[in-house]
Amino acid sequence: MSHDHPAPKGFIAYIQRWLFTTNHKDIGTLYLLFGFAMFFVAGFMSLIIRAQLAQPGMQLVNPATYNVLITMHGLTMIFGALMPIFAGFANWQIPLSIGAPDMAFPRLNNWSFWLLPFGFAIMMSTLFMEGGGPSTGWTMYAPLSTNYGPPSMDFLIVSIHILGISSILAAINIIATLLNCRAPGMSLMNMPIFSWSWIVTAFLLIAVMPVLAGTVTMMLTDRHFGTSFFNVAGGGDPLLFQHLFWFFGHPEVYILILPAFGIISEIVPTFSRKPLFGRTSMIYAILCIAVLSFIVWAHHMFTAGMLLGTMLFFMYTTMLVSVPTGIKVFNWVATMYRGALTFETPMLFAVGFIAMFTLGGLTGLMLAIAPADFQYQDTYFVVGHFHYALVAGTLLSMFAGVYYWMPKWTGYYCSEFMGKLHFWLSLISVNITFMPMHFLGLAGMPRRIPDYALQFADFNAWATVGAFIFGFAQLIFVYNMIKTMRGKTEKAPKKAWEAAHGLEWTVASPAPYHTFTNPPKIKADT
Ligand code: CU1
Fold first, then answer.
1. Does residue 46 carry a catalytic annotation?
2. Which residues lie near ion ligand 1 (Cβ < 5 Å)?
3. Is 521 among the residues known to form the active site?
4. Catalytic residue at 299?
5. Catalytic residue among 166, 215, 270, 345
6. pLDDT (tens digit per residue) in 276-308
7. DSSP structure string for 150-215
8. Is the pTM of the predicted complex or chain greater than 0.70?
9. Segments making up each domain of the chain, as ranges
10. With respect to CATH, is domain 25-506 assigned 3.40.50.1110?
């Protein structure tokens, strides 16, 4: 703003403050608000889906609308809710925790955020387009997507490009910040673990978002410009689409879980009053998971037909992922072991995450076994599996992070009573919702159908009841957040959890670097 003119007041000033902001905290707040808003939009869609499936023969929405709903639910949750919420955590916590004044490129940061609402406006507008919204499922498989008539598919492609640009710019910013803006003396290995999880995530984003962009562009040219990438009649192959999509898609699911690992690795030591067990192995485990994520993609395609040797390769590499993941779970439990544990809301969500995510990981291991996968493929077992990973996993970690960092962000603790109520209602209802899906899948109920045979009725009724309890439990969270942001809860001191809750290092194991009174001289790496 030029200093020659009087500063604008009122509504204009408010709009300018948020539209032009280059402050990492402001942008972090915008990401979080946008992410949670989209979480409620996509969550509302899932409640319509669950209502439709409450009992057999329901005709709440017509089958075409149902397909649009599952497509938009998936895309909105992934690109609109989970990724932006993690980006919000990154914006707030990365500069603060590495001693940087802001992100490396503050204006770029503004742009990466503000691309999102516009990308989403385009994506949401497809719901109201002539001929119907995109109804392919979030995976957009060809030839269904390349032959899909309505223009909504083209608008979806545009919006995916915009969201992809936003993600890549944010990733570049995070990498530049972590490599160049660390406080003097903080080596890479001394970097806080949440920042570690994000630098790896950012490299994954830069590696795979262009693959998705290329894939949807090929889809676009197949649709309108006479190419035949995915069209057999023209010499192409629809399987190419699946390979390309999952080469993006599998690392993408790790993009949705690695920052969660970082959050949990920050919270568990605090409430165990112990340093993180196996810190270095935690960092290498993250790196290892990231590398493996590039060589497992075809486990999504076992039933599409492939050579036995290829199948074995993807089966074994997928099973290999459970080794570094197991190391992480072991280290979290070892951190808690003989710690002076207390269970404030963030810790409850963190422990809930560890238990639930492990379940999601185990069913993932079941899916990795190729001969067994022929039974599970395209059933509700898969839906149950990835919702354990993403709802009972990623989402619980996000709540853990919000409850943990809100005192830092706002100066006020969230209400513990409402936080704990939110936790228990969420934990119980998430299991009522998604546990039955495993049994439905094993019994043969296919995914992505608006109706089902009578024998699946009971488990579906349970899942619907659970989903609505989960949905309403989130209103407690919203109320709690509004109260905290308005300063109507307990005031938090500067070192929030440590001071007020008597959290000190009470064990003999060495304290982490930042708690040393006379920090040892560490040579800065360049
Ligand atoms: Cu995968």
1. no
2. 250
3. no
4. yes
5. 166
6. 999 999 999 999 999 999 999 999 999 998 999
7. STHHHHHHHHHHHHHHHHHHHHHHHHHHHHH-PPTT--GGGS-HHHHHHHHHHHHHHHHHHHHHHH
8. yes
9. 25-506
10. no
